[in-house]
Automatic annotation (TrEMBL), chain A:
InterPro entries to which the protein is assigned, alphabetical: MetI-like, MetI-like_sf
Protein name: Glucose/mannose transport system permease protein
Compartment annotation: Cell membrane; Membrane
Sorted UniProt keywords: Membrane, Transmembrane, Transmembrane helix, Transport
Major location (coarse): membrane
Similarity comment: Belongs to the binding-protein-dependent transport system permease family.
Pfam families the record matches: BPD_transp_1
GO cellular component, one term: plasma membrane
From TrEMBL, chain B:
Family matches, as PANTHER family: ABC TRANSPORTER PERMEASE PROTEIN (PTHR30193)
PROSITE patterns: ABC_TM1
Classification lineage: Bacteria, Thermotogati, Deinococcota, Deinococci, Deinococcales
Segments crossing the lipid bilayer: 12-30, 83-104, 116-136, 174-191, 203-221, 233-259, 286-307, 341-364
Keyword entries, A-Z: Cell membrane, Membrane, Transmembrane, Transmembrane helix, Transport
Protein name: Glucose/mannose transport system permease protein
Length: 287, 374
């Protein structure tokens, strides 16, 4: 049944009529939606203006002529970085999803004494401010000879992704009945054959959540990107920050760049939103 | 039985690489950072990037410098800023998120569309959000020009460049203020324990509060951290960044609250109605109490995000805007622009301690209950 604010509305109103409570509800929804969407309007309007048409006083106006060249210009400046980000996000996501899957399987189905404590210690890594490990991380990546290469960045993302991917898979596998595992054990299956024949085939939803979550996180990350890479390997977040930070740049360029940098994760969110939300909720640690 | 133990060995073997990686990259690196923060690496620029720099042990000198040194006023302002930022950001996200969730829980038409709209900023990077809002908050454009759309005069608030600050206090009074605040909290704890009939806790809390208050009254005022008064407060230039951060993250609290609301069994609401509760009473006595664990979760997640936020600030106000800077940004600049590694490591450690205050009790409580059931 729908919740109606009947108690607060005067009884004299006709029942079938427009209820003030509903009107107020929609009014509030529209106001909230404006708060969330107005920045998007300004983003597109500015990106579609030619540099000389961009004027602070007319920032709200729809452009008289659409200037699609902004996107080509932005692509020329950060296209390579988008490629870096894509490679980085895909590689780091696949590796951390696989690692998280076997970790979650081991932690939820083959519990040993102290497994929970171990997991809590692992999970702490998800919350630390990376500033507290940045200098040793930088030294370490440098010592490995990976500074300035995308592989150093992948390593960092895979390692610091272990807590969250393990957490998501652990919670996902917790819902798989233990009886299933026991039955397979009686049939003579061991750790790996249970994983490959029972667990892995039903893991698709878990993988979807983890892949979306990790892809978004890695794509959007900035601190490691700024610290561990150089010009040739910088991901798009860093390139975008440089694009908008410069003084002489006209504003259509960073706006178009922001759209390009936002598109992949935005698409993932719009197409697979349900799983995105599930990842979000998993991040709030419901043990 | 033998097969079972082999399987358990496999499970430990599978976890070993991750355990080693976390041990090194989290705990090892934290230890290394703490060590670096107690050296003078980088304090002499000539030595910072040398092949074999001469590094000396200096103990807590870097921390002393951060909290009381003449040159580190920027850090102290950032520490104050980050506290204000965190409180306002959490409050904004909770209020907006709860409001949106309560509305969506009333099943408006097109619920999925509304939800999508409120949640999409979550999928963006703070750098993208920052780039957009930097343009929105230009002094002579965007938000400030919005009133002209309805015929009003443009606003003139200097969003990211305001130098005004409110709620200022003298840094020298910090020990005094902290002691007083903690004492007040302890008094509340004591009163609550007394009401609950827990005599031991009442006595302990009351005695601690008393000692702190005595300290604040008699020792605190004589303590001088700095030779001259140094005022810090809430910089108004941060307001714009807080709004952008709430824009990005309030969808998250909405999703949390909505999941919580949807998890409340319909029978419970029905029962409350049968008992004669009106809407207000039902929310006040049935729904909000059930949502309080979610509020705590959200506060903890948002709190740790906000303490380490810096990419949003970097993208919106630039790295060198003193009015809006935060410790996480300062750490990056100090370490990787000025190559003052030990000072940077000290800032990182302070951040870690702040975050640990929030996270460690949370993780401990989450896993204590779970281990009890296992």
């Amino acid at each position: 049944m729908t919740a109606t604010p009947a108690q607060t509305t005067p009884a004299t109103l006709p029942r079938a009529g427009v209820k003030p409570g509903r009107v107020l509800m929609y009014a509030l929804l529209v106001i909230a939606a404006l708060f969330f969407l107005v920045p998007v309007y300004l983003l597109f309007v500015t990106a579609l203006k030619s540099p000389d048409a961009i004027n602070l006083a007319t920032s709200w106006h729809w452009p008289s002529a659409l200037n699609w060249a902004s996107f080509a210009d932005a692509w020329a400046k950060i296209g390579g970085n988008l490629g870096n980000s894509l490679f980085l996000a895909v590689a780091a996501t696949i590796l951390s999803a696989l690692l998280g899957s076997v970790n979650g399987y081991a932690l939820s189905k083959w519990k040993f004494r102290g497994a929970n404590t171990l997991f809590a210690l692992m999970l702490f890594g998800m919350f630390i401010p990376y500033q507290a490990v940045l200098i040793p991380l930088f030294q370490f990546i440098k010592a490995l000879g990976l500074y300035g290469s995308i592989w150093g960045l992948i390593l960092a993302h895979v390692v610091y992704g272990i807590p969250i991917t393990t957490l998501i898979f652990r919670n996902f596998y917790a819902d798989v009945p233990d009886a299933l595992i026991e039955a397979a054990t009686i049939d003579g299956a061991g750790f790996w054959s249970i994983y490959s024949k029972v667990i892995f085939p039903i893991s698709v939803p878990g993988f979807v959540v983890v892949i979306i979550w990790q892809f978004t996180q890695v794509w959007n990350e900035f601190l490691f990107a700024a610290t561990l890479t150089n010009t040739s390997s910088q991901p798009v977040t860093y390139a975008l920050s440089q694009l908008s930070g410069g003084q002489a740049v006209s504003w259509n360029l960073p706006m178009a760049g922001a759209i390009l940098a936002a598109l992949p994760t935005l698409l993932v969110y719009i197409v697979l939103g349900r799983y995105f939300v599930r990842g979000l909720l998993a991040g709030s640690v419901k043990g | 039985m033998k097969g079972l133990s082999k399987d358990r060995l496999w499970s430990i073997a599978v976890l070993t690489p991750s355990i080693i990686l976390i041990a090194v990259f989290v705990y090892g690196f934290i230890a290394r950072s703490v060590y670096v923060s107690m050296t003078d690496w980088g304090n002499d620029p000539a030595q910072a990037l040398a092949e074999h720099p001469i590094i000396r042990w200096v103990g807590l000198a870097n921390y002393g410098e951060l909290f009381t040194g003449f040159l580190q006023g920027r850090f102290r302002q950032e520490l104050v800023s980050t506290i204000f930022f965190t409180v306002l950001f959490i409050a904004g996200c909770l209020i907006l998120g709860l409001g949106l969730a309560l509305i969506l829980d009333r099943n408006p038409r097109g619920e999925g569309v509304w939800r999508t709209i409120f949640l999409f900023p979550m999928s963006l990077s703070f750098i993208v959000t920052g780039t957009i809002w930097r343009w929105m908050l230009q002094p002579q454009g965007g938000v400030n020009m919005a009133p002209t759309l309805v015929g009003g005069a443009p606003s003139t608030f200097p969003w990211l460049s305001s130098t005004d600050s409110v709620l200022k206090f003298d840094w020298n009074k910090l020990p005094l203020l902290t002691a007083s605040v903690v004492a007040v909290v302890l008094i509340v704890v004591a009163v609550r324990a007394m009401q609950a009939g827990d005599r031991r806790r009442t006595v302990v809390a009351a005695v601690c509060a008393g000692v702190l208050l005595l300290w604040a009254l008699f020792v605190g005022p004589n303590l001088k951290m700095l030779p001259a008064p140094e005022y810090h407060g809430f910089n108004l230039a941060l307001i714009g960044i807080i709004i952008a951060a709430v824009w990005q993250m309030s969808g998250y609290t909405m999703a949390l609250y909505l999941a919580g609301l949807r998890g409340i069994p319909e029978e419970l609401r029905e029962a409350a109605k049968v008992d004669g509760a009106n809407d207000y009473g039902m929310y006040r006595h049935v729904i909000f109490p059930l949502l309080s664990p979610i509020t705590l979760s959200a506060m903890i997640i948002l709190g740790h995000i906000s303490l380490k936020i810096f990419d949003l600030v970097y993208a919106m106000a630039g790295p060198d805007n003193l009015q809006t800077s935060v410790p996480a940004l300062n750490m990056y600049l100090t370490s990787f622009r000025q190559n003052q590694f030990s000072l940077g490591a000290a800032i990182g450690t302070v951040l870690l301690i702040l975050v640990a205050f929030i996270i460690v009790p949370y993780l401990a409580s989450q896993f204590r209950t779970e281990e009890g059931h296992a």
